[in-house]
Specification:
The chain is of the alpha+beta class. The protein folds into two domains: 275 residues, Butyryl-CoA Dehydrogenase, subunit A, domain 2 (Beta Barrel); 194 residues, Butyryl-CoA Dehydrogenase, subunit A, domain 3 (Up-down Bundle). The N and C termini lie far apart (63 Å). The structure holds flavin-adenine dinucleotide.
Length: 479
């Protein structure tokens, strides 16, 4: 079933999560301008499903019904391609996180790993997971994904931590389910989701069974507290008289929260891994494999399209679009972004069924990692060029409110006018400021895992022995 954005908004109104932002409790997520931007962005994803059905919808392998692709398990290469297209499209349309993205990739990773666990261990996780998935699909629920633990001292394993709560873990095993304690950090959009799928944050070893968990939890469950990020953009949005003063007026920045689990009860029917440390590595790596293609690759290419488009508009507004070095710099931006786009597509096209027999498809690991690695570096480079082209105004611009102030309006119009009136130049400069003087650089670097994680994977996946053999053969070197 496909739900309308209105039905989604209604579902959020019925939830009663405990949410804090800027040191204060948010009683009504619709009344706070920042939490509202998360609802508006998620609602827009529901709208886009009707506007672009060819990309945004799929047919459930469980029921045959048309569903939102955010709740679909990738069943072939075509699905992987559409999944990446969805990430690209949603980024282009909302210029912020598709808050259903992490949950979507956790679904495919869990479908693959639960199938394998049942086969190896004789458990019933896959059947249980499919029942839960059908519930999500039947109700078209907004589902986020929680993986990143707080982690405490990074040099220590979970059991060595002074406070073991820095890794989400089982605090009690009961007849009817488990009780979990700890927290997940940087949770994109979780405050306004209907559900969160929680998976283990890293590969675990024998003895660390309490940390090897995967489960699903409804928003507003007893014991969960969300503490939202607070940035200069939060303050700016709070203070805005008109949303059009902001860089991304409707959908804002990528909003996350610290999600605290204070002894939260999870019934067995929502538990998809419970102590199977030997499968934790598979869950983490399969999630990373698919998420790097989407969040690491396609999504950021969508953002890059917006940055490049805004930069081109600005150079045209400023009258420098025909100058050769300006065209060269815009071309450099395109080359950076298209390289990541190509790796994203390659990752989807080279996808394979994993494990064989599961019916679940995952993208090519090397190309997915390379897509993320390229865009993490390329994004900073693109922002550098955009900042160069935009001129100092991108960080020195007065408020657009001055255009409504009779005492300053004439000065602003006179001195910020270029080939176009001041308001146009200021609007698109503000849009660019949101990207290049904002938080998307570090966000792109860390989202889907920090760059070092991709380097490790690339080194592991590259067949250096074969490359050495080829070189030696042609150079006439014998061992
Ligand atoms: C905008 C944004 C949205 C996000 N959304 C989500 C989400 O929805 N769900 C979710 O689960 N996560 C989400 N994340 C989390 C993201 O995946 C993590 O931020 C990322 O994995 C890095 O983890 P960390 O922030 O704890 O940094 P750290 O792990 O502390 O890493 C910081 C640096 O330290 C290095 N480092 C850390 N530990 C070691 C070690 N033992 N040895 C050597 N080097 C080390 C890392 O390589 C990195 O360079 C989001 C992040 C961002 C920025």
């Amino acid at each position: 079933m496909l739900k309308t954005s209105e039905a989604y908004r209604k579902s959020v109104r019925e939830q009663k999560p405990i949410v804090y932002i800027g040191g204060k409790r948010v009683e009504d997520l619709f009344a706070n301008s920042t939490t509202r931007s998360v609802i508006d962005a998620t609602a827009k994803i529901y709208d886009i499903a009707f506007e672009h059905e060819e990309i945004m919808t799929a047919y459930s392998h469980l029921t045959g019904e048309k569903i939102n692709r955010s709740l679909h398990v990738n069943r072939d290469v075509e699905d992987l391609k559409k999944r990446a297209e969805m990430a690209l499209l949603t980024s282009q349309k909302i210029g912020t996180c598709n808050y259903r993205c992490v949950g979507c990739d956790a679904i495919t990773a869990l479908a693959s790993v639960t199938w394998e666990m049942d086969r190896s261990l004789g458990t019933h996780y896959h059947e249980r997971f499919n029942e839960y998935l059908q519930y999500l699909q039947d109700n078209d629920l907004a589902c986020t994904g929680a993986m990143t633990d707080a982690k405490g001292d990074r040099s220590k394993r979970p059991l060595e931590q002074e406070d073991r709560d820095v890794y989400l873990h089982i605090s009690e095993r009961r007849k009817d389910g488990i009780v979990v304690r700890g927290a997940k950090v940087n949770q994109s959009g979780a405050i306004a989701a209907n559900e969160t799928i929680v998976i283990v944050g890293q590969a675990l070893r024998k003895g660390e069974e309490d940390f090897a968990i995967a489960f699903a939890v409804p928003n507003g469950s007893k014991g969960i507290t969300y503490i939202c990020q607070y940035t200069p953009f939060t303050a700016e949005r709070n203070e805005a008289e008109d949303l059009l003063e902001l860089g991304n007026p409707l959908f804002g920045l990528r909003e996350t929260s610290l999600m605290v689990f204070e002894d939260v009860f999870i019934p067995w029917e929502r538990v998809f891994m419970c102590g199977e440390v030997e499968f934790s590595r598979h869950l983490v790596s399969r999630f990373a494999k698919i998420h790097r293609m989407n969040c690491g690759g396609a999504c950021k290419v969508g953002f890059a399209d917006l940055i490049i488009g805004a930069t081109q508009l600005l150079v045209e507004y400023n009258g420098i679009e025909k100058i050769p070095q300006v065209r060269e710099k815009i071309t450099d931006m395109i080359a950076l972004s298209e390289t990541a786009r190509a790796c994203t597509w390659a990752s989807a096209f080279k996808g394979i069924e994993e494990p064989i027999g599961s019916g679940v498809y995952l993208p090519d690991d090397m190309f997915g990692n390379i897509a993320k690695l390229n865009i993490a570096h390329g994004f900073w480079e693109m922002m550098k060029i955009a900042g160069d082209m935009a001129g100092g105004l991108v960080v020195t611009m007065p408020s657009e409110r001055e255009l409504k102030n009779p005492e300053t309006k004439a000065y602003i119009e006179k001195y910020y006018k270029t080939k176009v009136p001041a308001y146009k130049r200021m609007r698109i400069t503000k849009f660019l400021q949101h990207w290049i003087a904002g938080q998307h650089g570090p966000g792109t670097w860390h989202g889907a895992g920090p760059v070092q994680a991709q380097r490790v994977m690339v080194e592991r996946l590259a067949n250096l022995e074969e490359k050495k053999r080829l070189a030696k053969e042609l150079a006439g070197l014998k061992d």
